[in-house]
Design brief:
alpha/beta; 2 domains; six-stranded parallel beta sheet; elongated; binds iron/sulfur cluster; binds magnesium ion
């Protein structure tokens, strides 16, 4: 039987920078012993540290990868490291987050998210109940009545129980332990060995700021750890480590590739570009009409762009779309002077007025506007068409686009009909009827 000599991951004769009696001494020694006891290849260990006194820890280690991050974000970085390794590399890296209660307070959602994902990250929270490095301020983990520079009369906000919280996220290895507990090495080693998310709350003392004004000793700390251990894991979760789950359920699934590529079938006589603005009411397929126009252009070998606009509310108010069709490359997708403007409703008219489309129109612009809307002053060539009653509001803009194409003849109408049919199938006949009704009104 071969015996592997225990080795240290720490630098030779390293002097710890922590204050005398600080619990971080126990944390560092026990983490080192745990890593050694697991006999891990140092190249397969990544220590990700946070801001705070405990964050200096990474400079004490020599052989594993170490990664010092911004305050509260260490678990997010570690999750990224683990995903990259677990999905792209599969080298079974063991990633350990070194974080204090301050960092865990600031970056709590990162810890929650890693626990929900069950990514193979071990978070070791050094809970000394305050922000040690910045002067002992109250943290989200400070007990009730705790006296700190920011709670001189005693803390009145109850502390979070990170163990209960993280257990509620389905994490399977969650425990709280005193920094002086003789089992700490084993607990840390078991957490690191656990194939999935693990969290160990290591309750300890900041000798610089926690004692003196607070009655806190080993017994208090042990009681706190015991209470935090009492929370039980909900039974609703069935866990599998995230990278394994991702590889089997996402990467393992055959890719569904939708082949909707368009190849040129028609020839357009368009030279230069045509710039369209189509405006109407949300929910009346205004942006769909632009999409179908754009695809008709592509069927003719033209370059095409589409830009949509609507209010934040998405499903109410105006809906507007701009389409550029061009025989040449399109380097600018904006529309200064529109060539064609289609307006199917009062909301659309208001928007093209407000956004300057109408004021930028000139005598080369053609406007097709719903007949029931009020008169507008414009140098553009204006056609008033009862689009809503002739075609229904849902088909108004698409049929107006198709009728303009049929009238202008620069793009074959067949290309637009083809584009509509690809989307609506045999209902294309309704659009063909609409076009017949609109065409006489465009002469
Ligand atoms: S300030 Fe507190 S947490 Fe920081 S090293 Fe000193 S005792 Fe430890
Ligand atoms: Mg702290």
């Amino acid at each position: 039987m071969t015996t592997v000599e225990p080795k240290t991951f720490l630098k030779d004769s390293v002097a710890f920078p922590f204050c005398k009696g600080c619990g971080h001494h126990h944390y560092v020694h026990n983490l080192d012993r745990a890593l050694s006891s697991l006999q891990l290849d140092p190249k397969k260990v990544c220590i990700v540290s946070d801001i705070g006194c405990i964050g200096i820890l990474d400079s004490l280690f020599i052989s594993p990868h170490t990664f010092h991050t911004t305050h509260g974000r260490s678990t997010a970085f570690a999750t990224g490291v683990e995903l990259a390794d677990g999905i792209l590399n599969d080298s079974k890296l063991k990633t350990v987050v070194v974080i204090g209660d301050g960092g865990a307070t600031i970056g709590l959602l990162h810890v929650v998210n890693a626990a929900l994902m069950n990514v193979d990250v071990t978070v070791l929270v050094a809970n000394n109940m305050l922000y040690g490095m910045t002067g002992g301020q109250n943290s989200g983990f400070s007990p009730l009545e705790f006296i700190t520079p920011t709670t001189p009369e005693g803390n009145i906000v109850p502390p979070m129980d990170i163990c209960a919280m993280i257990k509620s996220c389905g994490a399977e290895y969650v425990t709280s332990i005193s920094a002086t507990d003789k089992n700490l090495t084993t607990v840390i080693a078991d957490a690191i060995a656990h194939p999935g998310f693990a969290l160990v709350e290591i309750v300890e003392l900041c000798t610089e700021f926690a004692i003196g004004k607070n009655k806190i000793d080993g017994k208090t700390i042990q009681t706190m750890a015991d209470q935090h251990n009492a929370a039980t894991l909900p039974t609703t979760f069935k866990r599998k480590e995230f990278c394994e789950e991702y590889k089997s359920k996402v990467l393992g699934r055959p890719l569904k590739i939708k082949n909707d590529a368009l190849t040129q079938k028609y020839i357009s006589s368009l030279r230069g570009s045509r710039r369209w603005v189509i405006a109407g009411t949300a929910g009346e397929k205004v942006q769909l009409s632009s999409y179908l126009l754009m695809r008709a252009g592509i069927l003719c070998g033209l370059h095409a762009t589409q830009k949509n606009d609507n209010p934040v509310t998405q499903g109410s108010g105006f809906s507007l779309s701009e389409v550029v069709l061009s025989a040449d490359d399109i380097y600018y997708t904006g529309i200064d002077v529109p060539d064609v403007v289609i307006i199917s409703s009062a909301e659309g008219l208001k928007e093209v007025t407000v956004n300057g489309t109408l004021s930028r129109s000139n005598n080369q612009t053609v406007i097709i506007m719903e007949d029931s809307l009020p008169e507008i002053l414009t140098p553009a060539k204006m056609y008033r068409v009862p689009l809503r009653s002739l075609c229904t509001p849902q088909r108004a803009t698409t049929s107006a686009v198709a009728a303009f194409i049929a009238n202008e003849l620069m793009i074959p109408l067949e290309a637009m009909i083809d584009s509509i049919q690809m989307h609506v199938g045999e209902k294309v006949a309704l659009y063909e009827e609409d076009i017949k009704k609109i065409l006489p009104l465009l002469s």
